[in-house]
Design brief:
30% of the residues lie in helices and 27% in strands. It is built from 5 helices and 15 strands. Strands 8-7-9-14-15 form a 5-stranded antiparallel sheet. Strands 1, 2, 4 and 5 form a 4-stranded antiparallel sheet that branches. A hairpin with a 6-residue loop joins β7 (155-157) and β8 (164-168). α1 runs antiparallel to α2 (25-38) and α1 (2-18) runs parallel beside α5. The longest helix is centred in the middle third of the chain and has 19 residues, at 105-123. The protein starts with a helix and ends with a helix. Bound molecules: magnesium ion (MG) (2 copies). The site of one magnesium ion has 5 residues, from loops.
Length: 248
C-alpha cells in the first residue's frame, strides 16, 4: 500500500509541474495515465463505475468527480486533481487542489484551511479514537473559518478495493463511529466549500458542484494506522518540489 500511495503521489508531482494557464485538463490526464502505466500500475478511476478518465479534475465551483476536458486553465482558477492507481493488487488514492497562476487571498485561504483540516483529521487517526474523532476535527476547523463541509461525499477505507469500509465523513461527533485499529488504512479527504455545504450534480452524471457556485477545495491522503499512530502513506513532497520549481 505504501508503494501504491507513492505511485499516486509521484503522479500528482508530475501533474503539478505542468499546471499553468493554457494547459488543458485532458493534457494532464494523458500525462498521468502514461506515467501510472510506466510505473507498472493501472489507473484506478478509468472505467470505475464507468468514469471515462484517469484523473478527476474539478475546477473552481466543482467539488469532485470533474471530467477532464479540453478547456485551457486560466489564471485565477483552482483545480482539484484526484488520482487513483492500483499496484500489485492494492490501491492508492490522493488529491491536491492547485492554484493556477495568481488566485485571490480569499481562495488561497480556502486552500490553506482545507489542507489544515486534512492534517488535523489525520492527527486524530490513533488507536483509542473512533472515526468520528477524525470527522469532528475536520468539521470544526472548516466551520470555524466559516466554510461549508460537504456531507454527501466522504473518505473511505482503502486496500484491495478503492472504496472499502469504514466511511470517513468530514463531519461528525467526537467518540462516534467505528474504532480505529492497527492495520486500518483510510483515505481522509476533506471537501470544503467557501460558501454553503450543499452540492448539485451536473447533467454529465459525474461532476459535483457547489449549490451556490462558490469555490470548493479538496485534499486527500492515504493513512495507515501503525503502532497505534497514523502513518501517511501518500506525500505532497513531489507536488511541493514541483511548485517550488515553477515559482522559481
Ligand atoms: Mg481520491
Ligand atoms: Mg478517495
Amino acid at each position: 500500500m505504501r508503494a501504491a500511495a507513492q505511485v499516486v503521489s509521484r503522479t500528482l508531482g508530475i501533474v503539478a509541474a505542468e499546471i499553468k494557464p493554457g494547459v488543458t485538463p485532458l493534457q494532464l490526464d494523458k500525462l498521468a495515465e502514461t506515467y501510472i502505466r510506466d510505473q507498472g500500475a493501472e489507473p484506478a478511476f478509468l472505467g470505475l463505475y464507468g468514469f471515462p478518465n484517469t484523473l478527476c479534475m474539478s475546477k473552481n465551483e466543482q467539488v469532485v468527480h470533474g471530467i477532464p476536458d479540453n478547456r485551457p486553465l486560466v489564471d485565477g482558477d483552482i483545480i482539484s486533481v484526484d488520482c487513483g492507481a492500483k499496484l500489485h493488487g492494492f490501491y492508492g488514492d490522493h488529491a491536491y487542489t492547485f492554484a493556477v497562476g495568481e488566485v485571490s487571498a480569499e481562495v488561497r485561504k480556502l486552500l490553506q484551511v482545507t489542507l489544515e483540516s486534512l492534517y488535523l483529521g489525520i492527527e486524530q487517526a490513533v488507536v483509542g479514537n473512533r472515526i468520528g474523532d477524525i470527522s469532528f476535527a475536520v468539521q470544526q476547523h472548516a466551520e470555524k473559518n466559516g466554510y461549508g463541509v460537504v456531507r454527501e461525499l466522504v473518505g473511505h477505507g482503502l486496500g484491495r478495493k478503492l472504496h472499502e469500509k469504514p466511511e470517513v465523513p468530514n463531519y461528525g461527533k467526537r467518540g462516534s463511529g467505528p474504532r480505529i485499529q492497527n492495520g486500518l488504512v483510510i483515505a481522509i479527504e476533506p471537501m470544503i466549500n467557501m460558501g454553503v455545504k450543499n452540492i448539485k450534480q451536473l447533467e454529465d452524471g459525474w461532476t459535483i458542484i457547489t449549490a451556490d457556485k462558490k469555490p470548493s477545495a479538496h485534499f486527500e491522503h492515504d493513512v495507515a494506522i501503525v503502532d497505534g499512530k497514523p502513518e501517511i502513506l501518500s506525500t505532497f513532497k513531489y507536488v511541493e518540489e514541483a511548485l517550488v520549481k515553477t515559482l522559481a
